[in-house]
Amino acid sequence: MTREPGETLEGVYVLDEFPAQLSLALWTALRDVSLWAATPEERRTALFSPNAEARRREYAAQTRLEPALDLALGTLATVVSHAAQASAPVVTLMCLEVSRWARGKGGMGTAVSFAQAAALASPEDPAPALEVGRLALEWGRPARAETWLRRSIGLARRAKEWESYGGACVVLGEIYLRAERLQAAERYYLYAARVARRQQLRLVRAEAMHGLMRVRMAAGGDLEAAERFAQLAQRAYGRAHPRAADLLHDMTHLMVRRGEWDRAVPALRRQLAVFSDPGLRMVCHALLAHAAAALGDARTYEMSWKEAWNLQDRPGTAPHLPTALVHLGKAAALVHDWLRVQQTVRAFNELPPARRRGAVAAAAAELAGLVNTFRTR
Question: How far apart are CA 7 and CA 14, in angstroms?
Fold first, then answer.
């Protein structure tokens, strides 16, 4: 899957995400690599006109590119003058450099397009296909991500490249977990955990254990198993891994789910001191309001409830909103704040249907039942 259903021109997002002059330089490089990768090796000699590289370098000089991007696009420009001799690994590496640069600038369509070009330039390498899958999921294109992740798994199995295999299984597990296909999510996390154990892939093991913890939490039953998986993930991540903070947040969520209020409150305060993402801050405040209500701390309940509620319209909070609303509703119910319970149920029912599913939907229905009971008194 190389295009979205409405993507009439390959790489059109490149033209939309950056200023005109820069976007044209990027799109030209993307088109060159895509054409080169799609052409059989024996037919690449006369693929581009003799002065094509000079024209591209002249245009790049006029565009005043950042040094890192200038190096990558300059290297890719040699593809048009040495098409028959161009090295696929070098082309792939430079495309991934452009992809990383674009992601850092917020141009996710461009990042995915160049990662995809990298994968097409090295069609037997599972690592670039895995990168396309990761980026496509981050961009919010799970169907595209799934296609590339399955491709990565097939290539990795054939090449016995187990790190890419495990990584692709982890990301597929994430796709299915978000879609609340818990059995499929668990299956792929277990695949990743097994290969990580056999091949001693510590970080793949950490991500797999973290995923299995979240599956158990989403299923809502065996929270003891969720705790065990969390501890295994924590040992495997260590303190320096970027996802260690996400794990700590999920562990705090687990504390609240298990009613360990005294453990949860200080942990949530520490997270609020360092988290800047509005979605994570919203959930932290909602969990803190829930824990404070259970402990009878009226002041913290009031402050955290308002903070969480006021964050819901901030950019990037939508994926976290169902969870936050459920905990705000539970917090309000604990202190018999029925107007706020009604407020959260109403806000939950206004969410898109795709966000009103599974365990959060069941919890919201329970809150709605409490509201109805209160009304009949």
Answer: 12
